[in-house]
Amino acid sequence: MASIQTLSDSDRRVIARWALACAERVLPLFDADDSARAEIRDAVERTRAYSAGESTAADEISKRLVAVKAANAATTPAGAAAARAVAQSSAVAHMGAHALGAAAYATKAVSLANADRPTAVHDEIQWQLADLSERERSTLRLLPALGSDSSGPLGAGLLSRGILGSTIREIQEQLG
Question: What are the backbone angles phi and psi of residue 90, rounded to the nearest 5°?
């Protein structure tokens, strides 16, 4: 039986657009060698294609860890978080809950790059919420609350702790 965090292919395509928008917003923070930058650009393009219905979930699932590996080449912690936001957005083809992971890692990137600006995290989350279409909001509401289902990324793992967890909780609370 599939996890409730998976969502239908149609729903995953809908929220892939938003996940990618969150990731692309912080992508300028990513700096690495040419190979890693090319892998991140490729992940962005593949996510865009998946969202538009131009590729299949199977195609994307087989390549979803490429951006994760590229994040390890980042020259700064903020850049690594930005690359992980891209990785999470590309993983939406596999499981819809990764859309919230993309938003959370984007917020983490903003936090790391703006330690001297106390409103940076709040401002980023507000931008993310404002960028959601009504259909994307409805789709995200289908996901279980963070920590309430252990069969995916919204379980008790990395996304449930620290700024990642607090970002997802705030987004889910504001979505209602």
Answer: -70, -25
The set of residues, in sequence order, having a beta carbon less than 8 Å from that of 54 and lying 6+ positions away, is none
Q: What pLDDT score was predicted for residue 63? A: 87
Q: Which of 69, 71, 23, 31 is nearest to 47 (CA)?
A: 23
Distances (CA, A) of 98 to 57, 86, 88, 103, 113: 14, 10, 5, 9, 22
What letter would DSSP give residue 150? Answer: -
Calculate mean pLDDT across residues 116-132: 98
The alpha-helical segments, DSSP class H, found in the chain are 9-26, 34-51, 57-61, 66-71, 77-90, 98-113, 120-131, 134-140, 162-175
pTM for this predicted structure: 0.96
Q: What is the mean pLDDT of residues 65-94?
A: 95
Can you tell me the mean pLDDT for 127-145? 97
User: Which amino acid, one-letter code, is at 127?
Assistant: W
Q: Assign 135 to helix, strand or coil.
A: helix
Angstrom CA distances, 32 to 27, 68, 70, 97, stand at: 12, 13, 8, 27
Give the amino acid at 7.
L
Closest of 64, 77, 78 to residue 26, by C-alpha: 78
